[in-house]
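2024-03-11 09:14:02 INFO receiving multi-entity request
2024-03-11 09:14:02 INFO entity count = three
2024-03-11 09:14:03 INFO echoing inputs for audit
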Amino acid sequence: MNRQYIIRRILIAIPSLLGISVILFGVLAMAPGDPFEELATNPAIPPEVRQALRAKFGLDDPVWQRYVHWLSAMVQGDWGFSFQSRMDVDMLILQRLPVTLIVIGASQILAISVAIPVGVLAAIRPYSIFDQIASTFAMIGFSLPTFFTGLVLILVFSIQLDWLPFVYRADVDATGWAFYWEHIKQSIMPVIVLGLAQAGALVRFMRSSVLDVIRLDYVTTARSKGIGERKVIVRHVVRNALIPIVTLVALQLPAVFGGAIVTEQIFRVPGIGSLLIAAILANDTPVVMGVTFVFACLVVLFNLIADILYGWLDPRISFR
Amino acid sequence: MAGSTPASLSAEAPAAPAVVAVSPRKARSISPALETWRRFRRHVLAVTGAVVLSILVLAVLVGPYIWPVPINEIDFAAKLEGPSLAHPLGTDDLGQDLLARMMYGGRISLAVGLAAMLVALTVGVLVGAVAGMASGWLDATLMWLTDLFLALPTLPVLLLAMYLFRDSVKQVLGVEGGAFVLIVVVIGILRWMPVARLVRAQFLSLREKEFVEAARALGASKMRQVVQHILPNALGPVIVVGTIDVAAAILFESTLSFLGLGFPSDVPTWGSMLRDAKDYLDIAAHWALFPGAAIFLTVLAINFIGDGLRDAFDPRRVL
Amino acid sequence: MNERDLRGLLDQVKAGRMARRAFVRRLAAVGLTAPMATQLLALSGVAMAQPKSTYKPTKRGGGGLLKVLWWQGPTLLNPHFAVGTKDQDGSRLFYEPLARWDRDGNLQPVLAETIPGREDGTLAADGKSVTWKLKKGVRWHDGQPLTADDVVFTWEYARDPATATLTSGSYKNVTVEKVDQHTVTVKFPGATPFWADAFVAAAGCIIPRHLFADYIGGKSREAPTNLKPVGTGPYMFKDFKPGDLVSGVINPNYHQDNKPYFDAIEMKGGGDAVSAARAVLQSGEYDYAWNMQVEDEILSRLEKGGKGKVVISPGGNIEHIQLNNTDPWTEVDGERSSIKTKHPTLSDPAVRRALSLLVDKASVEKHIYGRTGIATANFINNPKRFVSTTTKYEFNVDKAIDILEKAGWKKGGDGIREKDGKKLKLVYQTSINQPRQKNQAIVKQAAQKAGIDIELKSVTASVFFSSDVANPDTYTKFYCDLQMYTTTMTQPDPEVFMLQFTSAEVATKANKWQGRNITRWRNKEYDDNYTASQSELDPVKRAAMLIKANEMVVNNVVVIPVVSRPGVAAMTSKLNASISGWDNNTWDLSDWYKDA
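2024-03-11 09:21:47 INFO inference complete, emitting structure
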């Protein structure tokens, strides 16, 4: 693990991202559907209009030509424009980025900060009451879909108790403390729904990997040296047990940008997930391409970061 | 639940002698598989899980013969009824019997959940193990592939896959058979990546550990190092992913059906019943309750079995 | 109903022996839209009814924020690029047409001073031109005056093929001339019974010349005003996030007194229809929600909370089942459902008649759609109260069995009927939408009882309705036996609508499946009748021909109409808003107000 290795990995990332972009573009071009479906069922719109629009937006060109066109524009910082709204793609993404980062980011932070200590505590005393309760909640978290847990929360907290709003409004018409309070109130439910689903899996992973490590020889050695139990757990056990967690978190973090499609839909959070799904359903290729390509870059980046962190967590790991 | 916990399962138990891990030869008196089975059998929760899962499987397999009500008998007079003698689990908004639908749907959901989980695990473990052992260009290529699959947007890929393969698969295997195979393969293909990355990370760390080094020094082949020494120690996260994937696959199947990519809309599954019921949650709660509970129970049972397997596979644990 | 009957009715209205409303209803019963009926009246010299305004507020503003939910939010705000009603609805916050259609199909003036009529000669006797007088003193949001130049420009903009507007259908065949600063004349190539299309309602929004003049043709996308609309409407632009939010603030110089009532408006997008209904009817977070495609069972339970109400408005949308006339399972020259083939079983009129008897429309209405889908026998809408005398619907399994038996379709060993080795096994497809899947299940069960095996198939809407040539699952390819969807009738003139059954319009590989005739039904009598109606100058004769066309489609079971789908909106109890099935949801937004 050295600087040379990192530089090499970053250099490899460029052609690999290019390759990913070719395949993404190919899949989107081949996937069924076209952006003007809504015009098709409307008898008032002549078919020529649809044809003219297809030609105007270059949809009738061969796929490779469209790809080259897209790539050369992208290199110059031009992300193209949406077929649906005819707005620039980068502008559309920027409009939705803050909300996505806040809501999805908060839920990830919540998930990680709850799951890691809970998982460790559950593993230290496996099959204790605490472990059983934690495991049950974790299993609820990943065996019930978010569309269901979200709805239950809405029915209880918005409709029965009338405590929280369930329509997320990015433009809150309040100032000062009221502004923050409104934002917090409307974020509570989406953050909890998402956080619960993610924390559920993380708790199980954390518990399992601490159990794996806790019985390794060097932990026993550390214990026999008379190091305090607390220190053993934090220094020796958790650090090693973090390798799968780092992997998982690195897998999930790109989603902070990519958004959460179902949860955003339930609470009408104007995040990137809902932008993406609307664009996919409308076959709005430039938007889909823009979002997924940034997402792909983040996937590659975070996996690289994970690899680097492995070396830090376990210095014996070497990349040859 | 807590009452049934055997005291010996506590981690406070004295750690196993290091020798066992370094040299499995000493345990030769009984085969490792038998040893694992012996340990599993003693795991009370795991056995409970296995029993619950067996009951579920038995219920969906045998149930329809005991309760021979058609799954799609529409009866508007009885719509949205709660549990009664005529309909033990109540009815949905077309007056169809939920018990019959639960049993029929359970066959599909359980089969899809388990099969898709196995596909995802197999592919993931294979890719992760090869990448973790190989390093160099093979590792780089496999990780590129993993990144690619992670970056692909699910929906267009699904639409494309169905559009390319649906008709040919349907011709060979029929409507429901074709849908089953496609769904299992598609879910497997979309969910192996986390497994691969987890397994690779475990391998990177484990292959440098003392007991593997010792085996290497003793001249164990690469294959032997993996199968005997590294893999059993890397299984912890794999089992967890497996249990989570069962739930994910059951729910994902409903998403596929909802998109018209899965089973025909008149074929009930637990996931699609839960989805259909959600808008009626405050009107007819029973409709959502039963499929939701069935999925939860399945996940619970599989988790206990997973925990049992995990503990049983642990080479350092002597029960 | 033939031409003579129609003339008799018109005379009765003229003589004051029949109410206008009754006339509109009678025509609806035989399949003509309300706007079509009122246009007929206007051409016969009976002026449009101008209902008295029920608007109560006595000063402009003071109503606070109006919060409305569109579960699919507008994605663009240029009315001439509007793809669906959501975009048109969003544009109507800021832009206005010369006139709009109310609930009963009457024209109401907006930017026009009056509705053209025969009395003052603004509606030409030969039906070849119509003159519109603009309201004076109307100003754009940026202070510039609205003049005839803007109207002429709108026509030039919309008809330019390089601009590729979606409203071009209304403008490409007419010419528009400026008469003076506040008068324009629309000239038609021939006598046009349906004269109120250009500059009217959804497709008719007037755009400011001074802001769009530089962006006509190929540069149309670059106009900054596309994203920051400047119109004449009741609200001025504040913010726009495609798919999420459109917001506006009160226009202090709006051209109607005491309007609008609300100080600001916020149109929120996203989510699904059921939760939108909850936000209005159950929690009251929002004042109004659009397009409640929610099962009536749920809507009525939510309504019981007493916080809001569901408002229904009749329109021209029909959920119908199409029967394939060609063979979808045999490939000829690289295309299935080719017109060179004949459907093996559906070509038998007995099978078609039996199928139409097996669609339990009453149950579909009662248990799935409720108020939001009314069982119908006609392809063009038909309010239930005025069932047509010629076309009827019936659900009768025994009768269907009887018809099949008599035609020689006998039950085989597997319970499925067959004749000459051909089994009655059909594939029935539709788009994904919960009520549709339930509808499919109901049809399947009835068919099963009659010995017809139906396999259900559902395709995600974005694929089903696409015009993707490579995809076999699109509705225009119709690679299966039966299919179901709703045709929208955005244009109230049935002529465009009835075009879809003419032989020349058959969707084939040769025309890239762009043809409108999807059932591939071909009938010379229908074609002749349709061609004659197109060149018919006498509006009454023409109307009679269109009525006949509708009857032919239904009586030959080319399609099986299931339910007509009226517009459905949810609003809080205090909100007063009128809904029109013939215009946008926000057609009279300036008149919305809340009770104190």
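2024-03-11 09:21:48 INFO post-check: Residues 154-206 of chain B form the longest helix (53 residues).
2024-03-11 09:21:48 INFO post-check: Chain B touches chain C through 24 residues (CB under 8 Å).
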